[in-house]
Amino acid sequence: MARKLYRSRNDRKVAGVCGGIAEYFDLDPSLIRIGWVLFILFGGSGLLAYIIAAIIIPDSY
After folding, report:
1. pLDDT tens per residue, the chain (61 residues)?
2. Whole domain around residue 8: which residue ranges?
3. What is the DSSP string of 4-46?
4. Ramachandran bin of 16, using left for φ above 0, alpha for ψ from -120 to 50, beta for the remaining angles
5. Number of domains forming the structure of the chain
6. Can you give the C-alpha Rg of the chain in angstroms?
C-alpha cells in the first residue's frame, strides 16, 4: 500500500503540517517542528514554505 502525505488532525499545533510530515517519515513531530523553526530562523523562507505546504498538503480523513 502506498503511503500518502496528509496534514495531521491528531498532532496539530497550527495547521498540522509538521505532524503530517512526521507521520509520513515515522519520526517524532517535535524533531520536525524544531527543524522547521531552524529553517525559519536561518533560512528565512521557512514561513513561506510552511504556508505553501499548509495549502498544498491535503487534510487527513
Report:
1. 678 888 888 877 888 888 899 989 999 999 999 998 898 888 778 888 889 999 998 887 6
2. 1-61
3. ---B-SSS-SSSSHHHHHHHHHT--HHHHHHHHHHIIIIIS-H
4. left
5. 1
6. 11
Q: What is the value of pTM for the model shown?
A: 0.80
Look at residues 29, 35, 34 and name the one whose alpha carbon lies nearest to residue 16: 29
C-alpha grid cell, residue 11:
498532532
List the grid coordinates of 16: 498540522
Kindly state the cell numbers that stand for 61.
480523513
